[in-house]
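Example record

The entry below shows one chain as it appears in the dataset: sequence first, then structure tokens.
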Amino acid sequence: MQKILHVVTLGGGSGHRVVLQALGLLIGEEGDYHLKLTAIPVTSDNGGSTGLLREAYDIIAPGDIAQCMAGLSSTIEADWLMNFRYSHGKPGRGNLGGHTYRNMPVVAHLQQFGPTQQAMDELAKRFELRGRITPITFTPTQLHAVLNDGTELHGEEEIYSADLAKGGGVRKHWLSPRPQLNLAALEAILQADILIFTPGMLDTSLAPLLLVPRVQEALLQSKAHKVCVVNLMSKHGESIDSHVNYLEKLLVPKFFDTLICNDEEPTETQSEQYKREGKRLIPSPLDLQGLPRAIIAQPLLLQQSVVSEHGGDEFAHVRGSVRHDPFNLSEALDEVLRWEANKVQSTRPRLFLDCDRVLFRTDAFKEAYALRMAALIVGVDRVQTGELENFVYPDVKPALDKLRMTHTLTVVTYG
């Protein structure tokens, strides 16, 4: 009997799309597992076609959602349509020149159903996607950064285009207005068997995910196997360990269980293209022995050079000429999935304990935490701050210890 593995991907851009394509190649294969896919894209981009659509309709960024839609597409016919980019029409007529088709259904569903998870679920149903898309937030927020020299940058487009090293690197990121976490994304993170951070720009594709309130806490609570697919190329001189360390500084040291890295050189054409863009290949793990985690290193480069998709589109970011090969990446991911599917699983039932946000406004964090769990155990639906004195921490600890002997406790916090 195949084990069902809930795989959750997090990220943005074409890197997220390729990881979903790689996972899609494993769906329906005979093996040890059956995949349930959920993609969690960022929604704060303001560049290119996405930026214009955001401004026109006051919505979250459709572009990274559309990349997930393309990655989860189940038919060849849908694939060419997802890649279609409109040419410029007659001057003065108002046209879609430079916009990509895949953004349009996202905008349509957000308009029809509002900024809701229902919009995403209807989108998945209509396009027969191989998984669910749960954007990290439906708040139309913008990414901001201040560099160590005091320079302020506003919007992903400006941050992406800036010479961050010249400004001494990023001192701080923030999102404005303050976003609200999509609860469907929270649920996916907490229920995942495997969490995959997809390749992408650290400051614009991955940092925005971790800046949404409660995301970091949910990731730290997750018992999933945590995977990082490391970038192929670097714009700011990252290595494999600095790429991982960047993310783990926002989380905890040794957060990732497995790193998936490339160990082959790009073609001369690909290298020259990236040199013109000021980028270089990230060193292979052969140069970085001793990283304290499992490493899967194998050839991951798409051997053909990727030509620009936008055909003169002045809206779009520069497209990278070096990308992951979805077929090779699927082999690396298959190693992780097979290992996870064949682990010895606990036979104890899992009990989800829902901690109410009101408790985290008190100074007695640990006591409040345990009190809320105890309240749920004894059947109290809700505990207000003023009622906390009705419970005594030492009295409930034995009950919790006993419960842990028969259940796997997963605490869901909101605060």
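Notes for this example: The mean pLDDT is 76. The longest helix spans residues 326-341.
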